[in-house]
Amino acid sequence: MDHLMAIILAAGEGKRMKSKKTKILHEICGMPMVQWVYQSVKGAGVDEVVLVIGRNAEQVKECMGEKVSYAMQEKQLGTGHAVIMAQEFLQKKEGQVLILYGDMPLITSEAILSAVNYHKQNNNSVTIITSDFDDPSGYGRIVRDDHGNVLKIVEDRDASEEQKKIREINSGIYCFDINSLREGLKELDNKNDQGEYYLTDTIEIIIGKGKKAGAVKIMNKDELAGINDRVQLSCASQVLRKRILNKLMEDGVTIIDPDSTYIDQKAEIGMDTVIYPSTIIEGKTKIGEDCVIGPNCQILSSEIGNGVHIKNSVILESYIDEGAKVGPFAYLRPDSQIGKNVKIGDFVEVKKSTIGDGTKISHLSYVGDAQIGENVNLGCGVVVVNYDGKNKNKTIVGDNAFVGCNVNLVSPVEIKNGAYIAAGSTITEEVPENALAIARNKQVIKENWVTKKRHTKE
Predict the structure, then answer these.
(1) Positions marked catalytic
(2) What CA–CA distance (Å, rounded) separates 169 from 343?
(3) How many angstroms from the chain centroid is the CA of residue 201?
(4) Across-strand partners of 277?
(5) Most exposed: 36, 90, 438, 449, by fewest CB within 10 Å?
(6) What would the pLDDT profile of 266-296 be if each residue is shown by its tens digit?
(7) How far apart are alpha carbons 377 and 208 in whole angstroms?
(8) In Å, what is the CA distance from 402 to each residue of 159, 398, 416, 423?
(9) Distance of CA 44 to CAs 1, 113, 170, 240, 369, Å?
(10) d(CA 404, CA 440)
(11) CA dist list (Å): 33 to 22, 25, 103, 233, 390
């Protein structure tokens, strides 16, 4: 079987992004744009990916890791020069190589695969992905012969008036036979006004050797958009967001208002879950079936079981088991583990804590660095006082305990199974199993105190 590899050109500086971060690492729907290109080529069956990098090379390597090989282009001397920097990876190989750009995140696996298939079926030495643009200004034009074969690519600045009327443009994405590309690179020169090596010149070299060049048009012009600034980044985000939401809806998720819903590419959502407006689901989040999420929720890199209801809340890097109800206005901070059928109510904050099955924390409470058992009731205004000014300490509340309103549990402390804490108490010592703890001053009544006070003021 022929080897299919890809070279992704990603050495450009991206000055128009006005950023300390290299352009291809700017994220769209939770993933750097170069990752979108990588994902598309892998989805098309590519065996090997080479990334040509330049400025901020270490940033790119940190992002992409060992799943790609790297070629270094220290000086940007044109697209042909970039491929020359990667030609060591072409040696002693047979098959096809795709050339793409790391700032074209909208290209799909389907478009790439159609180009590869077209290339093979027509015995081309090079195949160009093209499209018809209503306004082709600024793009290279595809010049064909009477049989539809590609004769050459003419850059906009070099095109005659007649050639400028051609609407078919060069996307800059190519499929080469590896042998043909190697031969073309050997004869490539930089004898032009810019002093650069242009990859498009290799196509004329290949044609000049009597080999066949073809072009395959794709209908969706969005796929060929390059990203050069933050405005274009935003436009690409809209396209990819729509793709993500459409796929989820096709898989059985109800999204009430796609225009106000933002879901990252890595998120997984089960069938018959309903997503209400103004909801943001980010990172590697997994949501089960039959859930109701939103409105006005933010969920980041969390796992949520079946049948969970979350309303007007923020969930960060946490786990919520099936049947739980969260919100409105709850805040789950990282490393929170919420059990089955738990109630986390309005204005409740949970941080790095485990909440057992069936427990209710209904409103206005803070639980931090705690282990709360099953079927516990934490009343309104309960605070786990986990910080002593220097260290975070742990509170443990056993199964079936009842903690009354406005109770402070001063960590480290343990409340045993079945214990009952009277409202208004501040607990600093262990409470035994099934015991009642009262830690407050005895109520004092002073008769006629108000009347006497008024009389004194007069």
Answers:
(1) 363
(2) 58
(3) 37
(4) none
(5) 449
(6) 999 999 999 999 999 999 999 999 999 999 9
(7) 82
(8) 82, 9, 10, 10
(9) 15, 5, 21, 18, 47
(10) 13
(11) 11, 6, 6, 9, 42
pLDDT of residue 1: 52
d(CA 385, CA 387) in angstroms, rounded, equals: 6
- Residues 27 and 167 occupy one common structural domain: yes
Start-to-end Cα distance in the chain: 104
Positions of the chain with pLDDT under 70: 1, 457-458
* Residue 258 maps to a domain: no
What is the rounded CA–CA span in Å between residue 405 and residue 204?
A: 81
Go through 421-455 and write b for each residue having 16 or more CB atoms within 10 A of its CB, e for each that does not.
bbeebebeeebeeeeebebeeeeeeeeeeeeeeee
Q: Structurally, how many domains does the chain consist of?
A: 2
CB 403 within 8 A of CB 397: yes
CA-to-CA dists, residue 382 to 169, 241, 326, 349, angstroms: 66, 41, 17, 11
Residue 367 lies in a domain: yes
Say whether the peptide bond before residue 412 is cis (omega within 30 degrees of 0).
yes
* Nearest CA among 152, 274, 143 for reference residue 204: 152
pLDDT score at 426: 97
Question: Exposed, middle or buried: residue 66 (CB in 10 Å: 0-12, 13-18, 19+)?
Answer: exposed
Residue 297 in domain: no
What is the amino acid identity at position 193?
D
* 3-state SS assignment for residue 6: strand
3-state SS, residue 325 = strand
Residue 358 lies inside a defined structural domain of this protein: yes
The reply to whether 202 and 332 lie within a common domain is no
Domain that residue 77 falls in? 3-224
Residue 378 φ/ψ, nearest 5 degrees: -105, 115
- The token pair that represents 85 in the structure block: 């920097």
What pLDDT shows up at residue 458?
A: 64
Instruction: Note the pLDDT tens digit of each residue in 6-60.
Output: 999 999 878 899 998 999 999 999 999 999 999 999 999 999 999 999 988 999 9
Q: Which residues of 173-189 are buried (b: 16+ CB within 10 A; e: fewer)?
A: bbbbbbebbbbbbeebe
Long-range residue pairs from 183-190, CB within 8 A, at least 24 positions apart, any chain: 183/209, 185/80, 185/83, 185/84, 185/87, 188/80, 188/84, 190/77, 190/78, 190/81
Q: 212 and 352 share a domain?
A: no
Here the CATH number for the domain that contains residue 425 is 2.160.10.10
Which residue, among 179, 178, 165, 226, has the nearest Cα to 9 in the 3D structure? 226
Residue 182 Cα distances to 3, 68, 69, 136, 179, angstroms: 15, 21, 18, 30, 5
Per-position DSSP letters for 228-281, written without gaps between them: -SHHHHHHHHHHHHHHHHHHHHHTT-EES-GGG-EE-TT-EE-TT-EE-SS-EE
